Structures are given as structure tokens and as C-alpha cells.
């Protein structure tokens, strides 16, 4: 009798469950059929074969377990695929806006569209950035890309992101002054170095000539070799870590 009651409760809970897979309507109809059959059995006299009652209950419970296991596998596989897509170890969460920046920067590099994105950390940037346009919007990959297309009136400045939101656009960054910079380094890279000489900000630069991605930190320019490296440094950077301790010497400079 106990297993029969458990089966009934299980069937009711599953029928109320929100569908997460396309074949759920078929499973729900199957469960409903079994539940109706089980309910009919409960109305039979007490001398009705207990074996039939128990086997029906077991079938309902087995179907329920199969659905639960399948949902668990779907959840785990989704986590694994997402982790592989973004090159982040399972269990390490990253803010959603970092994914948006990663996608935007990757596509900008592929299309060779120049861009400068500043990630403000603990220090304020008011003293270092003298000219910019105030802005306040969520970080979105498509919007970030739109800022830097040639037709945009603000494409030649930097975008400043703080606390997961775009706070400034068309920001003019100070040029490098503390260290000698190679003659082949463009204005975007010089200004990225210049801002990070004065503040603890991270600056991501996309070169329109070569389609390469660089990250500036503490007055040093880091050449990004692949998407995995970019995501690793972005994730560490927004958590306040010193990314210069995470790279190889060959990645320094251009």
C-alpha cells in the first residue's frame, strides 16, 4: 500500500512539472494514463491482486526516475558545453557581462574593427579621463560592436565599463608617458598603456590593421594569443587579480 501511495504522489507532482524537453507532452500523457489506471485499481475491492497494484506503482515511479535522470543529464551537459564554449573550467562562474565583452571583442577582431574597452576596477578614472560622454546601459555584445563601427560618431574613443554597465563612451585616454613605446604601436595601444600607467584599470584593444587583441595592465601591453587566453584574463581581471602574473614573457608587447 505504501508504494502505491508514493506512486500516486509522484505521478501528481510530475504532471504539474514544467516541461523542459520537447517530448514531455507524450510522457505526460503516458503518466496520466498510468495514473488513471492506478486510481481505478484503488477503487477495486481489497481482494484485488496486490501484485498488479504494486507493478503499476513501480512503473510510475520508474518513469518518474527516468525523467528526473534525463533532466539532470540535460542540465550537466548544458553546463559542460557552456564551459567549453567559453573556455572556463566547470564550477567557475563568471559575470554575464564578461561573456558579452568576450563575444564583442572576438567578433570585432575577426572583422578587423578597431576598438578600445576599459574595465574600471577599484580606482576612479575621473582624473585620468578628461573627456568623455556619460552613458549608462547594460553590457551587450551587439551594442558594444555598434559603438566601434566606422559609421558611429563615437567609434574613435574608448568605452568604459564599470560594475557590469557601460558608463562612458567616446572617452579620450591619456597617452603613455612612463615607458618608451615602439614606433609601430598605434594610438589605441598607446592610450591603453597610458591609462593603465595611471590607474588599476584593464584596457582591451582590438587592432583594425591586424585584427589582433591586446590587454593593457599596469602600463604593460599583453598580446592575446587565443580566445581561451582572453577569457581567462578577463575573468581574472574583473575579480581584481594581477593578470601580469598569469602570462608568459613572450606575450608582453606587440
UniProtKB/TrEMBL annotation:
It holds the Pfam family DAC. Residues 81-229 form the DAC domain. It comes from the Bacteria. PROSITE patterns: DAC. It catalyses: 2 ATP = 3',3'-c-di-AMP + 2 diphosphate. InterPro entries: DisA, DNA_integrity_DisA_N_sf, DNA_integrity_scan_DisA_N. Keywords: ATP-binding, Membrane, Nucleotide-binding, Nucleotidyltransferase, Transferase, Transmembrane, Transmembrane helix. GO terms for molecular function: adenylate cyclase activity; ATP binding; diadenylate cyclase activity. The chain crosses the membrane at residues 27-46, 58-81. PANTHER family: DIADENYLATE CYCLASE. This is DAC domain-containing protein.
